[in-house]
Amino acid sequence: MPIRATVWGENVHEQKNKFVAENYPKGMHGQIAALLSEDKNIVASTVTLQDVEHGLTEKKLDETDVLLWWGHAAHKDVEDAIVERVVERVWQGMGLIVLHSGHHSKVFKRLMGTPANLHWREAGERERIWVVNPGHPIAKGLPPYFELETEEMYGEPFSVPEPLETVFVSWFQGGEVFRSGLTYRRGAGNIFYFRPGHETYPTYHDKMVGQVLRNSVNWAFNAERHAHLMKAPNTPVEKAIEPIVERGAKLTHHPKS
Ligand code: ZN
To answer: What is the CA 31 to chain-centroid distance, rounded?
Structure first.
């Protein structure tokens, strides 16, 4: 069965900025889904902030193996209950790919537990993306580095926890560097943060970027869901693996049946 990827798009700047609308007539989410669909192992669909429950109903998440998240202008408009729902899905094993300014999304910050701040400049600089982990599945088929002629600069320090793996490091024309491809695991869920993707530039029309996105969906996929991770049950004395005798003071009281 193919991997079911859901692309979540904020869909705000596409409606308000003519450069963004020209770059992405189908919406950024539509173009990202088109890139994913080049892989026969992926079935991609899209939802947006404006949909009921931001498109992230329980049913839609039941049908999602990997969720991709692009947001920028409206992070605060994402309802906390939906954020919590997505986070719990990740903990249970759903894959999550966070793109570009999604670093400041409620979902990503909640999963990182840090401000996820960085410094930035919107000056159409060349970005050189170095593959620093060539054996990693997300780097499959890529050259030692690739370039995006115009991108927004994101500079270190990027206040996220130390990643599980660093796949890409970016250099910018103005001299800054940035860890632009990072993996995490939270609960049973695989998470990948990928930096490029500023909306006024045609980044999601780049062949290499498409390759990274398809690779990352394949990497993040996990068919298993671990609902038990959402519970914290008590194992009573009589159910202990080895026989034990209860002793000492305790907080809990179980009436004798
Ligand atoms: Zn940006």
So the answer is: 17
Ligand 1 centre distance from Cα of residue 195 (Å): 9
Distance 210 CA to ligand 1 centre (A): 18
Alpha carbon of 24 to ligand 1 centroid (Å): 15
- Domain-located, residue 253: no
Residue 249 counted as domain residue: no
Each of the 257 residues of the chain gets a pLDDT tens digit; together they read 999 999 999 999 999 999 999 999 999 999 999 999 999 999 999 999 999 999 999 999 999 999 999 999 999 999 999 999 999 999 999 999 999 999 999 999 999 999 999 999 999 999 999 999 999 999 999 999 999 999 999 999 999 999 999 999 999 999 999 999 999 999 999 999 999 999 999 999 999 999 999 999 999 999 999 999 999 999 999 999 999 999 998 887 766 55
In a domain, 257, yes or no: no
Domain count, the chain: 1
Question: CATH no. for residue 101?
Answer: 3.40.50.880
pTM for the structure as a whole: 0.95
Residue 7 domain boundaries:
3-239
Residue 80 C-alpha to ligand 1 middle, in angstroms?
23
By the CB criterion, residues less than 5 angstroms from ion ligand 1 are: 101, 152, 198
Asked, for residue 251, whether it belongs to a domain, the answer is: no
